[in-house]
Structures
1.
Amino acid sequence: MNLKTKRIRGMQDILPDEMKKWQTIEKVMTEEALIHGFKSIRTPILEHTELFERSVGDSSDVVEKEMYTFVDKGNRSVTLRPEGTAGALRAVLENGLHNSPMPLKLMYESSCYRYEKPQTGRYREFFQFGLEIFGSSSASADAQLIILAHSILERLKIKNVSLEINSIGCKNCRKKYIEAIIDYFNSKINSLCPTCKNRLTKNPLRILDCKNETCSEICKNAPIITDYICSECSEHFKILQKYLKSQNMNFKINPKIVRGLDYYSKTVFEFVCNINENETLAICGGGRYDDLSEILGGPKLCAIGLGFGIERILNIMESQKILFPKEKPPEIYIASIGEAAKEKAFKLCKTLRNAMIFAEMDIIDRNIKSQMKYADKLGAEYVLVIGENEISENKAILKNMKTSNEIEIPINENFLNDFLNISVKNIGF
Ligand code: AMP
């Protein structure tokens, strides 16, 4: 086939078989979030570019290199959201939700856009399931959110997952830390990659994220943030650990987690999964962002949030051969011979569907043999065959596809009840 246009690189079509798996994942995530008191929110895919420059940070990789930004017809710079938190907080502030009783717990599923090099687990359009808790500065909120994420991963039966946590302190203690790492990296400046040389003046924390081998080696001996955090941040971090331990949660303190976005303070964390002996992939990341509301012009509003990468979770579940529930087949297929029978099938189908019964019938004028074959392919539990004789006698043949047994069933106003009696009682006539 010579298609004139194709899918955009780094973006995926999610086909029906895959969608079923997505829905399974989304269902587990939503159910867990609901029993923790989260309510759903949906925000626009497009925001003013400034929102992300101010929140994610204009010297972050996401804003500097990865955003889908363009000028709209009104000459405004707009951006396809690269992540969900900034838009969620903007919506909270703009709609006055910060005045509602606290804590405010929000969940959403959003498509996100980052112009990154497509590779395993890295797409240009990807979906995040996000959770945000507003209005609590307590480390117990951080712990609850992390434990909730853990429950989701457990319910999805994902193996080889570990939790890594860190505290990057508040803006005050981070100042001292940044001075310390600037001193340290300045002493190694000649060995840093060109990007990190640039980061040293613009955003030195980002050097700790660098994937370049020499830079990673240099980072191993860099000062660690936990040695620089103030007593309040340190206490907050200790309480978080106490709560996690009280739930027997295993975690590792990884002082190298600074996360790619600028708005975090205090707690940051990632759930990472081993995809082979040497490689890990972050499947969920989050952190506290107590200053972001003020940065966006709102009041003081403490907050913590996380984002799951749905594609990554799905890829890992598939590679770990975790079974997904199968699509349900139709309960009944109505096969018909001739126009009058088809009209009857049409009516019966509607009656069944009104009662929330998954019913199918022929709509592409197959002959009866092909209809039976198709019903079998679909895996229909019963097939009702209506022919010309059946119409005149107001009855039809109901075939149990498992046993191949057949009975006659009236196709009058009692049809629904009669069918329910047979199917619910699972009469294997
Ligand atoms: P971040 O906003 O970068 O902390 O990302 C949160 C989560 O989204 C990560 O833990 C990943 O699971 C997922 N993620 C981030 N970037 C991508 C991407 N380009 N493609 C697929 N998933 C991603």
2.
Amino acid sequence: MSQLPVLISEAELNRQREIAALIAALPERPGSYHIVTYGCQMNAHDSEKLAGILESMGMREASDRLNADLVLFNTCCIRDNAERRALGNVVWLNELKKRKPGLMIGVCGCMVQQPLMAQRLIKRYPFVDLAFGTHNLHQLPAILYELLTQKKRVVSVSEQENLIAEGLPVRRQNDYKAFITIMYGCNNYCSYCIVPYVRGRERSRRMAEILTETEALIKSGTQEIMLLGQNVNSYGNGSDETFPQLLRALDAMGVPRIRFMTSHPKDLSDELIGVMAEGKHICNHLHLPVQSGSEVILQTMNRRYTRAEYLGRVKALRQAVPNIGLTTDFIVGFPGETEAQFEDTVSLVDAVGYDGAFTFIFSPRAGTKAASLEGQVSPEVAGERLRHLITAVEAGSSQAHRQMLGQMENVLVESVSKRDQNMVSGKGTRGITITLPGTPEDIGKIVPVKITSSAVNTLRAERT
Ligand code: SAH
Ligand code: SF4
Ligand code: F3S
């Protein structure tokens, strides 16, 4: 059962704003910051909020970490390698600190929210100045003020898991493409996953807040919004607002493109599929993580759908939205996974035909159920399965791409090609990267094209 979310009070947010103003006036405050972000898009959006808060204290973004007075690592702990990468970089920064003694180093995000991690970090890495978790990002002004005025290292990790902060300053990476977090946390407890432990209970923002944010974005010319949540399909859980309602309302506002992620297959309702089919602005792409094609493994993962149910959802989606592109996530080498069960995953790939997939080797996470399951698969076997799976995914996606030859698409141009200055690239509504002739002026615009050729991960097109 979901816990009711608690909105952080205006009084508390004002207190933080006042502290931010005090910091802005301190002569010894850092003048510039650089944020290094790991993990998912929700973390990327948290970094946009951290940047907004830092700018409210008068700091400006440094071009890179070498030129910054404050470097903040916004970490991820979804897999062991994500954690190790972040820590490796923090250690590297110590070398820089030796040359630049005033440099401040902060670590925040999911890794820090794990039990006892902040204390361990501070003890093991004496050059880290501040550490804070995911639940008290809004307190950054108070945390930094303590560091600056009391000249002591600060650890601040809140255990309160049901908070929502509205009205934080945001400095977005892009003006044409914007993230909007619609819900926080997760209650699903998939047996391998650490997210429910580090992101807290599932809680949704009120629809009115999301619509207001979207309205402002539309006014400022945003072409695409990406709605974010660990399980957006269960948006509104415990209230009278639902995800299909939210999507309908956003679609009616006329933002050119709407995307959302991540969808959990168990909550993909017929109503939601209907809204996707009817919506004028909802992109014909769905990221629908399946994790495994094996009935038994799905059950041990606590995913709460069967293979047949997943395939049933795919069929319903394809009937309702004929040109829809599907992408997914897989975990191979889950404890106890046999060769035959892995083959079930490969056959599912063949049956669905994904546009693309993120493929991962199972990584045991402390505190999760799967970490202590019998039958851990050796890294060699898991690696072999991963390679095999990637080949299967690529065969499916090449076929999907070939089917798109000659079709019309609309590309939201994001960058100039590194290889050819006369080419630009961006994503079509179906989510596939498309390269087309163009100039830097096209960035941030939606350009109609016709697909002319295909490769594994990209399509080429001509302007129409
Ligand atoms: N909320 C999303 C995704 C969360 S994390 C969902 O439910 O699908 C993104 C992906 O990381 C997951 O889909 C899963 O494939 C992978 N992942 C999560 N925990 C993992 C672990 N312990 N080992 C390997 N991969 C993992
Ligand atoms: Fe993790 Fe499962 Fe929640 Fe996704 S739905 S965040 S995989 S527990
Ligand atoms: Fe990583 Fe946290 Fe996202 S663990 S995947 S950054 S929610």
